[in-house]
Specification:
10% helix; elongated; mainly beta
């Protein structure tokens, strides 16, 4: 199987690996991945006592158990891998795109 391949500035081959998932079990919601993403691919969400995603900034009643990063705009990911480099819990899944 061949993958989509590009070249770096010096002509070296580079195969992007796109963010395809973030594990809510592993993510600690630190936001490091969000800060390095130039494309706003992720979004911070809260997880309530029922295990459902909710607005992390609307916690007047204290229902939010913890916050996690979620994949919001997968199509905007350019596969640079910056988010994977800063994730201390390895909560992200990245995949190469098969060439058409």
């Amino acid at each position: 199987m061949s993958f989509v391949q590009f070249a770096t500035r010096d002509g070296s081959p580079w195969v992007p690996e796109y963010l395809t998932a973030i594990s809510a079990e592993l993510c600690i919601g630190c936001g490091r991945c969000f800060k390095v993403c130039a494309r706003a691919v992720m979004k911070l969400m809260g997880i309530n006592e029922d295990g459902e995603f909710c607005d992390p900034f609307d916690d007047d009643d204290g229902e939010i158990e913890r916050k996690v990063m979620t994949l919001d705009k997968a199509g905007d990911c350019i596969g640079c891998g910056a988010c994977a480099q800063v994730c201390g819990t390895k909560a992200q899944t990245h995949e190469k795109l098969a060439a058409a």
